[in-house]
Give the backbone structure.
Amino acid sequence: MPSNYLTKAEAQDFITNSLHVPLTDQELLGVDLSVSLLQKICFAFTEHVPYSTMRYIPTPPEERELPTLEYVKHTGLNKLGGLCFETNVFLHWLLAGVGFDVDFLISKVFGSDFYNHALNVVRVCGKDYLADGGITPLMTENLICLDFDGDVSPISIQSIWEVRLKRHTSDDGQILFTGDFRWTENTAIPNWPVPIEDGWACLYNEVPYKRLSLAKLSALLRPAYMDPVIAPVISRLFCLIFPRGRLVMIRGTVLYYEEDGRQRTVVRTGSAEELVQLILKHFGEFATEAVVRRAVKAHAANGKVPDGWANFPDVDRGING
């Protein structure tokens, strides 16, 4: 749906100059839009717009609220990233601005009992495709079509993950999707807390195939921004981006990144200062040093660090902790 917050000219300018995806004269007119163009925009979005909790975790949960649409536009145009509401609403505006037929969906992710994740569905060339610029690895290489034959989609490879969807019909006749992922060979994260079955872990545990307005999405998602029980990630340090389609992720105090052959490399930090410098190295263009330091301090204050990990000296002494 077109947005009053991001004009067609702003969307096209961002796609061509910030995402570096050229648009033909026909595409600028919203004509001859293709799955190929949709994939190029989504791939570039994962390269240049991070998923990041850095600006959220320093704020106590009871003081948090769903971002305003003005804030979503600001963070989007400046490629600051954010949580799924910011990233997927901004992605939605970009796609709608070019002329794609795009709507919002909502889902429960990583085993949650609550709706805690926004995503998009795009209809192009007579078929529906997921476009998720949030925490889930669904559009780095191959867009996933929802109009697959049978009840299980073909397996697609996205960075170091394999992904599949399953189609279900509820007792009242509503179509639902679930999604699973598994790591490619030699990349699995030990002691992953999400239930795993035959190598597959829960990605989406419920996606109603029901298009939502932005107002409805906002109402459903607002509790997730304030309650860490609904969305535990809001109290954790988590940054994710895919330069050249390859994973770079800060998860807590650890860096994970993808090397040749879809191999996962792990770098564990031993101190707050080491973590700050690692974040600045990989995500410094998206956040100032002050933002990074506040986020690391908040993460440590939440008790999300390993034994023996050296905090900032002032926190170790109980000051500003």
